[in-house]
């Protein structure tokens, strides 16, 4: 398998999950600025939408969108318990979190990374994000991970996007549960390995 990624992007989430899975894969750097690979290949030929992550299977089939990719990876190694079993209520709770993180948090950061976003809109975007993250902080009270005591693929996604707060000036210093969650995640060997691949800290 190949994972097309860009450092600091949401592709860190499947990068973490692949490390947790123990599956063999090749990380392939895809610049979100030039949209080219190191060998000059046009990334649009791999993903016409131009963004990461993309998971390419050994048979050439490709899967886009982080929430789909991380569930696919988890289902290849069910004994690792990276996601609850398909068809279980807990699996739908996982999908609930993946959808919430994707639509309410991930997308909320988008305007703050775009240079053409009007300055007077940024405080509105920051306030909306802070409210969503505050709610997540409340949900993490008394639990190690989003689904309880065990890590799941949703945690990799939350860890990835919540780290973006430091790049856009979003103060989460009062969100003690999220900060503890980030610290807990940062101690996982898979997270450290994924960050090392991407040249991040």
Automatic annotation (TrEMBL):
<dbReference type="InterPro" id="IPR010987">
    <property type="entry name" value="Glutathione-S-Trfase_C-like"/>
</dbReference>
<feature type="domain" description="GST N-terminal">
    <location>
        <begin position="1"/>
        <end position="81"/>
    </location>
</feature>
<dbReference type="InterPro" id="IPR004046">
    <property type="entry name" value="GST_C"/>
</dbReference>
<dbReference type="Pfam" id="PF02798">
    <property type="entry name" value="GST_N"/>
</dbReference>
<dbReference type="InterPro" id="IPR036249">
    <property type="entry name" value="Thioredoxin-like_sf"/>
</dbReference>
<dbReference type="GO" id="GO:0004364">
    <property type="term" value="F:glutathione transferase activity"/>
</dbReference>
<protein>
    <submittedName>
        <fullName>Glutathione transferase GstA</fullName>
        <ecNumber>2.5.1.18</ecNumber>
    </submittedName>
</protein>
<dbReference type="Pfam" id="PF00043">
    <property type="entry name" value="GST_C"/>
</dbReference>
<dbReference type="InterPro" id="IPR036282">
    <property type="entry name" value="Glutathione-S-Trfase_C_sf"/>
</dbReference>
<keyword id="KW-0808">Transferase</keyword>
<dbReference type="InterPro" id="IPR040079">
    <property type="entry name" value="Glutathione_S-Trfase"/>
</dbReference>
<feature type="domain" description="GST C-terminal">
    <location>
        <begin position="87"/>
        <end position="201"/>
    </location>
</feature>
<dbReference type="InterPro" id="IPR004045">
    <property type="entry name" value="Glutathione_S-Trfase_N"/>
</dbReference>
<comment type="similarity">
    <text>Belongs to the GST superfamily.</text>
</comment>
């Amino acid at each position: 398998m190949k994972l097309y990624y860009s450092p600091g992007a949401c592709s860190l989430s499947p990068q973490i999950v692949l490390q947790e899975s123990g599956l063999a894969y090749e990380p392939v750097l895809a610049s979100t600025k030039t949209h080219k690979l190191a060998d000059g290949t046009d990334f649009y030929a791999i993903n016409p939408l131009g963004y990461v992550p993309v998971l390419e299977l050994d048979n050439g089939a490709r899967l886009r969108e982080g929430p789909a990719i991380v569930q696919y990876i988890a289902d290849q190694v069910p004994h690792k318990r990276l996601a609850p079993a398909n068809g279980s209520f807990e699996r739908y709770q996982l999908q609930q979190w993946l959808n919430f993180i994707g639509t309410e948090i991930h997308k909320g950061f988008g305007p703050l990374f775009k240079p053409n976003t009007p300055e007077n809109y940024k405080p509105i975007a920051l306030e909306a994000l802070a409210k969503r993250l505050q709610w997540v902080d409340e949900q993490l009270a008394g639990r190690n991970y989003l689904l309880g005591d065990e890590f799941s693929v949703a945690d990799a996604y939350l860890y990835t996007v919540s780290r973006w707060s430091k790049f856009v000036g979003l103060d989460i210093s009062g969100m003690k549960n999220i900060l503890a969650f980030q610290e807990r995640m940062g101690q996982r060997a898979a997270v450290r390995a994924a960050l090392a691949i991407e040249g991040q800290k």
